[in-house]
Amino acid sequence: MTEEKEKRPDSVIRRHRLAERLLTDVLETKGDEDSACKFEEILSEEVTDAICTLLGHPKECPHGQPIPEGRCCRKAKEVIESLVTTLDKIGVGERVIVAYILTHNHPRLHKLMSFGIAPGISIKVHQKSPSYVIQVEETQIALEQEVIQDIYVRKSA
To answer: Which domain holds residue 96?
Structure first.
Protein backbone atom coordinates (compact mmCIF):
# COMPACT_ATOMS: atom_id res chain seq x y z
CA MET A 1 0.00 0.00 0.00
CA THR A 2 1.33 3.46 -0.82
CA GLU A 3 2.10 5.96 1.93
CA GLU A 4 -0.58 8.30 0.62
CA LYS A 5 -3.25 5.57 0.85
CA GLU A 6 -2.13 4.63 4.39
CA LYS A 7 -2.65 8.22 5.53
CA ARG A 8 -6.32 8.08 4.52
CA PRO A 9 -8.06 5.33 6.50
CA ASP A 10 -11.48 6.26 5.05
CA SER A 11 -10.03 5.69 1.59
CA VAL A 12 -8.84 2.20 2.54
CA ILE A 13 -12.19 1.32 4.12
CA ARG A 14 -14.04 2.70 1.09
CA ARG A 15 -11.94 0.72 -1.41
CA HIS A 16 -12.31 -2.47 0.61
CA ARG A 17 -16.08 -2.22 1.04
CA LEU A 18 -16.62 -1.30 -2.61
CA ALA A 19 -14.44 -4.28 -3.59
CA GLU A 20 -16.70 -6.48 -1.44
CA ARG A 21 -19.81 -5.06 -3.15
CA LEU A 22 -18.33 -5.62 -6.62
CA LEU A 23 -17.20 -9.17 -5.86
CA THR A 24 -20.53 -10.09 -4.27
CA ASP A 25 -23.08 -8.24 -6.42
CA VAL A 26 -21.56 -8.11 -9.88
CA LEU A 27 -19.10 -11.00 -10.01
CA GLU A 28 -21.38 -13.11 -7.78
CA THR A 29 -18.54 -14.57 -5.72
CA LYS A 30 -18.95 -15.63 -2.12
CA GLY A 31 -17.91 -13.09 0.52
CA ASP A 32 -14.20 -13.93 0.33
CA GLU A 33 -12.43 -11.46 2.63
CA ASP A 34 -8.96 -12.30 1.28
CA SER A 35 -9.97 -11.54 -2.30
CA ALA A 36 -11.51 -8.22 -1.25
CA CYS A 37 -8.31 -7.29 0.65
CA LYS A 38 -6.08 -8.11 -2.31
CA PHE A 39 -8.38 -6.35 -4.77
CA GLU A 40 -8.69 -3.23 -2.61
CA GLU A 41 -4.91 -2.79 -2.47
CA ILE A 42 -4.58 -2.33 -6.23
CA LEU A 43 -7.47 0.11 -6.74
CA SER A 44 -6.58 3.65 -7.69
CA GLU A 45 -8.89 6.49 -6.67
CA GLU A 46 -10.10 6.79 -10.27
CA VAL A 47 -10.96 3.07 -10.52
CA THR A 48 -12.59 3.14 -7.08
CA ASP A 49 -14.83 6.02 -8.20
CA ALA A 50 -15.69 4.13 -11.40
CA ILE A 51 -16.67 1.03 -9.41
CA CYS A 52 -18.73 3.15 -7.02
CA THR A 53 -20.55 4.78 -9.95
CA LEU A 54 -21.14 1.41 -11.63
CA LEU A 55 -22.69 0.10 -8.40
CA GLY A 56 -24.91 3.17 -7.97
CA HIS A 57 -22.97 4.68 -5.04
CA PRO A 58 -23.94 2.03 -2.47
CA LYS A 59 -24.23 3.11 1.14
CA GLU A 60 -23.31 -0.24 2.74
CA CYS A 61 -21.04 -3.21 2.13
CA PRO A 62 -22.59 -6.71 1.97
CA HIS A 63 -22.05 -7.01 5.74
CA GLY A 64 -24.09 -3.87 6.47
CA GLN A 65 -21.11 -1.62 7.27
CA PRO A 66 -21.25 1.96 5.90
CA ILE A 67 -19.18 2.83 2.83
CA PRO A 68 -17.51 6.24 3.22
CA GLU A 69 -18.75 8.71 0.62
CA GLY A 70 -16.32 9.58 -2.15
CA ARG A 71 -15.88 12.46 -4.55
CA CYS A 72 -17.99 10.64 -7.15
CA CYS A 73 -20.87 10.25 -4.68
CA ARG A 74 -20.98 13.97 -4.01
CA LYS A 75 -20.82 14.74 -7.73
CA ALA A 76 -23.56 12.19 -8.49
CA LYS A 77 -25.89 13.88 -6.05
CA GLU A 78 -25.52 17.07 -8.06
CA VAL A 79 -25.58 15.97 -11.70
CA ILE A 80 -25.04 12.35 -12.69
CA GLU A 81 -27.66 9.65 -13.09
CA SER A 82 -26.14 6.37 -11.91
CA LEU A 83 -25.97 3.27 -14.00
CA VAL A 84 -27.43 1.42 -11.01
CA THR A 85 -30.27 3.03 -9.05
CA THR A 86 -33.19 2.03 -6.86
CA LEU A 87 -36.36 0.80 -8.53
CA ASP A 88 -38.41 3.68 -7.09
CA LYS A 89 -36.50 6.09 -9.38
CA ILE A 90 -37.61 4.27 -12.55
CA GLY A 91 -40.49 5.67 -14.59
CA VAL A 92 -43.74 3.94 -15.45
CA GLY A 93 -43.37 1.84 -18.58
CA GLU A 94 -39.59 1.43 -18.23
CA ARG A 95 -37.95 -1.98 -18.28
CA VAL A 96 -34.88 -2.57 -16.07
CA ILE A 97 -32.62 -5.41 -14.91
CA VAL A 98 -32.19 -6.22 -11.21
CA ALA A 99 -28.56 -5.55 -10.21
CA TYR A 100 -28.89 -6.51 -6.54
CA ILE A 101 -31.19 -6.39 -3.52
CA LEU A 102 -29.97 -4.62 -0.41
CA THR A 103 -32.01 -5.34 2.70
CA HIS A 104 -31.34 -6.38 6.29
CA ASN A 105 -34.81 -7.94 6.38
CA HIS A 106 -34.18 -11.60 5.49
CA PRO A 107 -37.88 -12.56 5.26
CA ARG A 108 -38.33 -9.69 2.77
CA LEU A 109 -35.38 -10.91 0.71
CA HIS A 110 -36.79 -14.44 0.64
CA LYS A 111 -40.23 -13.10 -0.31
CA LEU A 112 -38.78 -11.06 -3.20
CA MET A 113 -36.82 -14.06 -4.41
CA SER A 114 -39.95 -16.24 -4.22
CA PHE A 115 -41.60 -13.71 -6.57
CA GLY A 116 -38.71 -14.27 -8.99
CA ILE A 117 -37.02 -10.95 -8.19
CA ALA A 118 -33.28 -11.63 -8.22
CA PRO A 119 -30.14 -10.24 -9.89
CA GLY A 120 -30.31 -10.47 -13.68
CA ILE A 121 -34.12 -10.56 -13.85
CA SER A 122 -35.99 -8.08 -16.07
CA ILE A 123 -38.69 -5.94 -14.42
CA LYS A 124 -41.18 -3.53 -15.98
CA VAL A 125 -42.77 -0.78 -13.88
CA HIS A 126 -46.53 -0.55 -14.53
CA GLN A 127 -47.66 1.78 -11.75
CA LYS A 128 -46.15 3.88 -8.95
CA SER A 129 -49.20 5.04 -7.01
CA PRO A 130 -50.98 4.21 -4.72
CA SER A 131 -48.62 1.23 -4.63
CA TYR A 132 -45.96 0.02 -7.03
CA VAL A 133 -47.03 -2.56 -9.57
CA ILE A 134 -44.23 -4.31 -11.41
CA GLN A 135 -44.12 -7.10 -13.93
CA VAL A 136 -41.66 -9.95 -13.42
CA GLU A 137 -41.81 -12.25 -16.43
CA GLU A 138 -45.56 -12.96 -16.81
CA THR A 139 -46.53 -12.05 -13.23
CA GLN A 140 -47.64 -8.65 -11.94
CA ILE A 141 -46.76 -7.88 -8.31
CA ALA A 142 -47.82 -4.98 -6.06
CA LEU A 143 -45.18 -3.79 -3.57
CA GLU A 144 -44.79 -0.97 -1.06
CA GLN A 145 -42.26 1.82 -1.62
CA GLU A 146 -40.04 0.66 1.28
CA VAL A 147 -39.68 -2.70 -0.46
CA ILE A 148 -39.09 -1.13 -3.89
CA GLN A 149 -36.24 0.99 -2.42
CA ASP A 150 -34.36 -2.22 -1.55
CA ILE A 151 -34.23 -3.28 -5.21
CA TYR A 152 -31.27 -1.84 -7.17
CA VAL A 153 -31.59 -1.94 -10.95
CA ARG A 154 -29.82 -0.92 -14.14
CA LYS A 155 -31.49 0.11 -17.36
CA SER A 156 -31.71 -2.66 -19.90
CA ALA A 157 -29.93 -2.23 -23.21
So the answer is: 84-155
Q: Which helix (H) or strand (E) holds 101?
A: strand 95-101
CA atoms of 87 and 101, how far apart (whole Å) = 10
d(Cα 89, Cα 92) in Å, to the nearest integer?
10
pTM reported for the whole predicted model: 0.52
| Domains identified in the chain, total number | 2
Q: Tell me phi and psi for residue 104, to 5 degrees.
A: -95, -5
Residues 6+ apart with CB under 8 A from 9: none
Same domain for 90 and 42: no
Convert the pLDDT of each residue in 74-132 to its tens digit. 776 655 455 788 899 899 999 999 988 888 778 888 889 899 998 889 999 999 988 99
| In a shared domain, residues 65 and 107 | no
